[in-house]
């Protein structure tokens, strides 16, 4: 039971850590295009992200995958920027609710990259354990819970701005995506690996 709490809390605070806010930024631009009535889509979205994240952690924990951390640290803000720019450039489609599964692909693929960012530390944590699968699943549970919290906050904030304060949905998506893109630009320059 102690290990369950340990690994679940690690996953929870891995995402909710304000010092490492890249997850929060990514989830914000991923979820900003949705409203509460889209809750099933959003749940699938964050679950795909968790699958990707967990897959790369598993490959690292079992010593199958080795990636240069400087490359991963650069790719993480690239994923955030790509999602923000997709929101901005495909705004008309997003507002008219044209169905697309591109965000599921974004979530899974970018989850792979974000998982690599934590893989070295996680590998050290579970290296001493014979059984790595259970800690991995417990960590994934913590990540999933934290992502649900963040996405609910994004949806609630969107509801307040769009329904109560009467901000246009197009403007809401555009402003939040642009703000996140602006925050990410310095991260890109700080993490250049070449």
Describe this structure in words.
There is one protein chain. This protein has 194 residues and is mostly helical. The chain has one domain (2-190). 79% of the residues lie in helices and 0% in strands. The chain is built from 8 helices and no strands. The protein has helices spanning 2-16, 22-31, 39-61, 69-89, 91-95, 102-126, 133-164, 169-190. The protein is globular, with a radius of gyration of 17 Å. The model has no long low-confidence stretch (mean pLDDT 89).
Strand content: under 5%
Count of alpha and pi helical runs: 8
Count of individual beta strands = 0
Q: Which structural class matches the secondary elements?
A: mainly alpha
Largest β-sheet summary: none
* Helix and strand pattern: HHHHHHHH
Distance between the termini: 44 Å
Count of structural domains: 1
Mean pLDDT: 89
C-alpha Rg (nearest Å): 17 Å
Pick out the low-confidence regions: none
What would the keywords be for this entry?
single chain; 194 residues; mainly alpha; 79% helix; 0% strand
Compact overview of the structure:
This protein is mainly alpha-helical and 194 residues long. The chain is 79% helix and 0% strand.
């Amino acid at each position: 039971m102690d290990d369950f709490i340990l690994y679940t809390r690690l996953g929870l605070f891995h995402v909710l850590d304000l010092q490492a806010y890249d997850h929060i930024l990514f989830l914000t631009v991923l979820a900003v295009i949705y409203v509460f009535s889209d809750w099933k889509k959003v749940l699938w979205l964050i679950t795909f992200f968790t699958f990707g994240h967990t897959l790369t952690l598993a490959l690292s924990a079992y010593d199958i995958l080795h990636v240069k951390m400087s490359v991963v640290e650069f790719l993480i803000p690239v994923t955030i920027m790509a999602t923000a720019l997709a929101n901005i450039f495909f705004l008309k489609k997003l507002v008219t609710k044209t169905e697309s599964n591109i965000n599921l692909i974004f979530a899974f693929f970018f989850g792979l990259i974000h998982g690599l960012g934590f893989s070295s530390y996680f590998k050290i944590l579970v290296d001493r354990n014979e059984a790595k699968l259970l800690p991995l699943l417990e960590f994934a549970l913590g990540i999933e819970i934290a992502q649900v919290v963040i996405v609910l906050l994004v949806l609630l904030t969107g509801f307040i701005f769009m329904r109560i304060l009467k901000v246009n949905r197009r403007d809401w998506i555009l402003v939040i995506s642009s703000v996140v893109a602006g925050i990410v630009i310095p991260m890109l320059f700080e993490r250049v690996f070449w």
